[in-house]
Design brief:
This protein has four helices and four strands. With 150 residues, the protein is of the alpha+beta class. The chain has a single domain, classed as Winged helix-like DNA-binding domain superfamily/Winged helix DNA-binding domain (Arc Repressor Mutant, subunit A, Orthogonal Bundle). 14% of the residues are buried. Pfam families: HSF_DNA-bind (PF00447).
């Protein structure tokens, strides 16, 4: 019984603290970094994040599993203005995940959401947001002038 509690607590603590270390590492800023305010983190290059960071730092190299973990620990998606959004860029925030405050990443600061229905609902909302973002990008590309390279 103690073994299960210890393992569960260690995983939760490990995920959030690992994420903090990756976000806080200035050498990763072109892929993942703090937002300008320091109150959220931004993945600037989704494909690079999936290819280089998920397998190296997290248990499952699967973006959907990573996002479910974020939602499980209470992170929320930050809605980005349409003009600055891109399919490669996404942003998440948590009140205890702040630049310069690693002590807030203690396991007891991140309450695990255990409701499967809540997680399904959040995943559906994320999928809708992603589809809308892709449609906006496709629409912009249709209206951009074609430049001929000679």
């Amino acid at each position: 019984m103690d073994r299960g509690k210890k393992r569960s607590r260690g995983r939760r603590r490990g995920f959030v603290q690992t994420l903090y270390e990756v976000v806080n590492d200035v050498s990763t800023d072109s892929t993942i970094s703090w937002s300008e305010s320091g109150k959220s983190f931004v993945v600037w290059n989704e494909s690079e994040f999936i290819r280089d960071f998920l397998p190296r730092y997290f248990l499952r190299p699967d973006l959907e599993a990573f996002i479910v973990r974020l939602l499980t620990y209470g992170f929320t998606k930050v809605v980005v203005e349409e003009s600055s959004s891109s399919s490669e860029r996404w942003e998440y925030a948590h009140p205890c995940f702040l630049r310069g405050k690693p002590e807030l990443t203690a396991a007891n600061s991140f309450v695990v959401t255990s409701s499967p229905e809540l997680l399904r609902m959040r995943m559906r909302e994320l999928q809708k947001q992603r589809i809308l973002a892709i449609k906006r990008i496709q629409e912009r590309r249709r209206h951009q002038p074609v430049v001929a390279h000679i």
